Sequence to fold (504 residues):
Amino acid sequence: MHAVSEIPSLPSVRGVVGAALRREWLSHRLNRFLYSHVALVLVVGALPLLTPGDGFSRGAAWWLLHGVLYAVSLSSLLLGLSSAHAEAEEYVWIMGQPAGIGPWLTGKAAGLVLLTGGSTALICAPVMAMGGGTRALAVVTVGAVGISAVCALVGFALGFWVRDGVRGLIAVVAGWFVMLFGVDLLLLALAGAPWVQANPDVWIALLMANPLDAFRITVLFSVERAAFSGLGAGALTNWWSANAVMWLGVLCLVWVMLGGLLAWLGLRRRTDDV
Amino acid sequence: MILAHELTKSFGARRVLRGLDLAVEPGAITLMVGANGAGKTTTLRILAGLSRADRGTVTICGRDLEKARGAGLAHLSFLPQAPRFHPRLTTGQTACFYGELRGRSRREAETALDAWGMLEFADVPTGKLSGGLRQRLALAIFALADAPVLMLDEPGLSLDPEWRRSLQDFLVSEAGRGRTILVATHLLGEWEGKADRCLLVEHGRSQGELPPDRLREYFPRLGGVTEPAV
Fold:
């Protein structure tokens, strides 16, 4: 015990971040969402093996693209939501600590990103195990890790804004539909507008800003090298086509930081509700 | 020492605190009593930095909570009402985490768990603990902070008589060591003769003090729980 007159000694910000990161890892040891996510990732990773003959290596990128878009992204969103909701009952303790919520949230988000991204990296394991490792597989795996991290933090942020479990689930599924189909449908609806026709870079920029679209375009046109009819359509399109992989990396980083910021704002907004 | 000046707080159109003043001295157990809705929990939450007052100031050991929140909270340990924890983490992991946030070692965390009879549950996920065991875990974490100011919101509700007595003994001992202790409670009977001061809160304002050795006389006014003293 310390003498009452002493000023209590507290850990550094880095110490709090580390403690929160370790706690996040420990808390997932019994999280069924994590085990479901790992199982799903391995199933998606094994899909290329369905390719007839010995073409599984060449077809891996196409299979993994669709597996990530339609399954792993949603699973990552749910993992992020469950992470945010798991501690909802404990905010009264956490927010009353002298370190404040910033370092705790940073450590927790970092733990979640590492865990989700790390487990998603297993997506290449089945093809690698069958001797089908290629550069394309490596690029798609890194992209899948990035998308997974982005989705986990979007789900995480939604979990801090929508505290109720059922509403949180609805919000996550709605967010997933917006990212997967909503942006594309909106862009399709806008495509014929004269103003968009006159400024195609704006249309492209919106497409580039959506991580699922950026991943899709990167895999189809940069990794799979599908025929691209839009070449020469504009400077931005050409730049994107030439730097798709780098852009996907930057975009994922920006979205991860945005997710963390939104989570922090959501938690701060709840100060009077804990 | 805890000082609150002219605290006001509204939730929508409902005014909960209407200029509450408070001074809690070190070396004593101070009760805060009042009927349901009087503003006790809101006051404690503001003092613990969990809620912001619309107006007024709070200082903990001389640190203004608005201007130096971290320094103020470093001097404070708060035990909330009906505490809950991450259900997938064990008792030991939970205590160690809060110990780390206060710069305490794993050994100190285990000592605190042991003091509250929780070391044998160290490997049990907190989601599987009963209400009483959760309360004892909360008390272990609360004590682990080793802070000069201790605030408790209805601390004995889930505890059996033996552990309620242990809690009172702990607080009496800590007050003897010069800690500042503020307890919001409805269990007036069991604090009679143990508390040094008793602050009355009504309609969001401080309404003076009650004699701490005759609290039972005020049951009808305060809606106190008439449990026998432990």
